[in-house]
Each structure stands twice: as structure tokens, then as C-alpha cells.
Specification:
single chain, three-stranded antiparallel sheet, two-stranded antiparallel sheet
Length: about 90
């Protein structure tokens, strides 16, 4: 399912217009992005937690040349599924 499919499904189930659903979804994604960028985490009880994690620096290898390269430390987004989501999937 892509973003357009999600908007269509929510619109059909809720009776809201596609434009309204798209505005809400974009707002939701924007708020999560801003929170993660500022170092906060977003916890939706039963669904899951969006957070950031530090990935330490490491040595990698260029697959084309075989040369070793140093990959710097980075911060990456992460999602941990909540219990209700895990139960629904299983």
C-alpha cells in the first residue's frame, strides 16, 4: 500500500474528503518528522514508538573498487511496534 492507497482507504472508511485526509496525513508525518529531528520520540500507545538511534562509525568497503572507507557516525530514525500492532500482525 502506498500513500495514495492509504488516503483513499481512510477517505472511504471515514467519509472525509480525500483532500482533508491528505492534509491530516501530511500534518501527522510532518509532526513526527519535526519531533524526531529535535531529538524527541513519539509514542502512540498500542501502535508503536518512533525514535532516533545513534549508529556508530564503522569501516566499510566500496563494492566497485574494494577499497576500505570510513563510514561516519549517524543518527537514524527507528520504529518499535507496540503490543497491539504485533498481535494484529500475528
Amino acid at each position: 500500500m502506498n500513500k495514495t492507497d492509504l488516503i483513499n482507504n481512510i477517505s472511504n472508511k471515514s467519509g472525509l474528503s480525500k483532500r482533508d485526509v491528505e492534509n491530516v496525513l501530511n500534518g501527522f508525518i510532518g509532526e513526527i518528522t519535526e519531533a524526531l529531528a529535535s531529538g524527541d520520540k513519539v509514542q502512540l500507545i498500542g501502535f508503536g514508538t518512533f525514535e532516533t538511534r545513534k549508529r556508530s562509525s564503522r569501516t566499510g568497503r566500496n563494492p566497485q573498487t574494494g577499497n576500505t572507507i570510513e563510514i561516519p557516525e549517524s543518527t537514524v530514525p527507528a520504529f518499535k511496534a507496540g503490543n497491539k500492532l504485533k498481535e494484529a500482525v500475528n
